[in-house]
Design brief:
146 residues, alpha+beta, Nuclear Transport Factor 2, Chain: A, four-stranded antiparallel beta sheet, 4 strands, 31% helix, T6SS_TssE1-like, IraD/Gp25-like, TssE1-like, Type VI secretion system baseplate subunit TssE
Length: 146
C-alpha cells in the first residue's frame, strides 16, 4: 500500500476511472463531481470480493454468509472491514469513520453511515454517505450530506 501513499494527488480520478479511461478528467470541476467519483470508487471497492484482483488480493469485502454470527457481531465486523477497505483503497478521503445504523424494523439489514474528510481539491471538506447491503449482498451508497 506504500504506492497509494505516494500517489500523485494532483489527479483525482479513481483507479477504476483511470483503468476504464473513458475520458475522465483528473481534475473535477465541482465538489459534487469529486464526491460522485469517490462514491463510484467506493461502490467498486465494496462490491469486489477479496482475491478478485491479482495485484491487490486483499481488495474488497468477504462474503458475510456466516450463520454463527449474531447481528451485533456482524455489524462490528463489517464496520472494521469497510473502514480498512476505504482507508487502503480510497486515498482521496481521510479520517474515515464508519458507524452502524440500527433499524428496529429491519434488524437483519446492514446499514452504515460513513463520514470522511476530503484530502484533495476541496481539502478538509466533510462528506457523509449512507451505505446499505441489499438482499443480493450488493453495497449501495447514498450521499447523505454535501
Amino acid at each position: 500500500m506504500a504506492a497509494l501513499l505516494n500517489w500523485d494527488r494532483d489527479g483525482a480520478a479513481s483507479l477504476f476511472e483511470r483503468i476504464q479511461g473513458n475520458g475522465v478528467s483528473y481534475k473535477h470541476s465541482s465538489l459534487k463531481e469529486l464526491v460522485q467519483s469517490i462514491k463510484y470508487n467506493l461502490l467498486c471497492i465494496l462490491n469486489t470480493h477479496p482475491g478478485a484482483s491479482q495485484s491487490a488480493p486483499e481488495l474488497g469485502i468477504a462474503d458475510l454468509n456466516d450463520a454463527t454470527i449474531d447481528t451485533v457481531d456482524i455489524s462490528i465486523r463489517v464496520k472494521s472491514i469497510i473502514e480498512r477497505c476505504i482507508l487502503d483503497f480510497e486515498p482521496r478521503i481521510v479520517n474515515v469513520d464508519v458507524q452502524p445504523m440500527i433499524n428496529e424494523d429491519e434488524p437483519l439489514r446492514l446499514r452504515f453511515r460513513i463520514k470522511a474528510i476530503l484530502s484533495i481539491e476541496y481539502i478538509g471538506h466533510p462528506i457523509v454517505f449512507n451505505l446499505h447491503l441489499d438482499n443480493d449482498r450488493h453495497y449501495y451508497l447514498d450521499l447523505a450530506d454535501l
